[in-house]
Model the fold of this input.
Amino acid sequence: MTEIATPADAAGGDGPQRTDVGARAFPPPTLAHFGLAAALVGLGDFALFDVTPGAAAGLFSAALIISMAILNPDLLEWRAGISIFVALLIGCAAIIEEPSFLTLGSGIAGLAAFAVGTEPCAAAVNAAVWLQRAVAYLLHGCFRLPIDILTMPRWASGQRWSKAVVAAGWIWFVPLTLSVIFLALFSAANPVLSSWLALIGDVDLHLPSAARLGFWIVLATIVWGALRGSPGSGEASSQTAATPNLGDFELVTNAIRKGLLSPAAVCRSLLLFNAVFAVQNGLDLRYLWGEEALPEGVTYAAYAHAGTYPLAVSALLAAGFVLLAFPSRLRGRGSRTAAALMYLWMTQSVFLVASAIARMGLYIEAYALTHQRILGLIVMALIAAGLILVALRIAFSKSNVWLINANALVLIGTLYVAGFVDFNRIIADHNVANCREMGGNGVPLDAPYLQSLGPSALPAARRYLSSPETLGSPKAWLVRSTAGNLEIELQARQSDWRSWTYRGYRLQGQKQAH
Done:
């Protein structure tokens, strides 16, 4: 197996502490930060989620302001900070009175003013400096939570509990998180797998909804950014705070490269991903390709329709992970194991896309062909080609430029060939041949949609009218009217040299032959 990256490695080692602005401005968070942040998220969920904003929003704002002052006592060391603090608390009364976009905007500006108001000599007398620092505070606040999470091994290295907990969590975070995401996508794509998971769900775990989880994430990001304070203080930092913090960027990059995507984490990820993909592909081999009878209550139409787009998203996530985890061909100890797992996963991903295409084919056979479904088939074929190119890039140690150029050539070639294809005729021919009136397994023919395809649908309409199966059909008169309208449209186009096309000329020749 590969070497396991330690938390110290993920943070860039145990060398001298950084002395950049970001390191000075953001000391490690304390238990008070975690406790107040959790309490505020809980309060925000109770006061704000799924309700029309009211007085509770003002109480939540006051709690957030007081928490900022408790965790950042330097904000109240100057008269300007005390004045802004009092003004913000009084301003919460306006939110209690009636929340509005005006009070929301004023509150955000006030929080920024409070967070950066520790240097009255710079901020109070110079509106430009204050505005620069306030904007920097808001920008840094949006990214403070993910940055703190990614750089956790660095700031948690001094804690006794962190050595084992962080090391284990760092290696298993990506494997477990992405495995759960893949499992959720496969559950949405596969009614059989969904029914299996439903058996587990018979035990009411009171799991939160996706909307509530999203609300918690957004609220936690806002609360954490506010509690962690401003990106810097002092005259020097006021001039550079609005610029990107390269120290944080380097720490995050090292954390991803040496921690979240370390060789040990990548190998564990690939093991779990292969197992999850094997379950989905095994079910497809059994029910889709093997044509075994589906469990009771599951129809082939539902099985085919449910899975197309979630499976395509899964394949795209697989390609993205491989590009991040394998910036170049692996070398050194454990590289053969990781490479073998990666190639196996890429093979499973390509098979996954092939199954998605087959599912779309079954759905088209059961219903009808449309432009959107043709586009879906083409996109999924391009995804499969992209996955193969990703594997080739790693196998032959090609650059990202090579990968981009190769995908661009495939896309350009596809678009070029598509320019010669009469998709309207393909759709019309398929829908007529597969419609219920012609003895097919599809739905009844949609005559208005057939007419919307233009003169290219004429051969299919004539085939419908000349078929013995449709003689005396109630819909025959409607199709005959459609064919008449299309012939008039074709004649009008071809009679003017400016709108004449070779495709229309061939259609006219087929009419005469018919």
The chain has a mean pLDDT of 76.
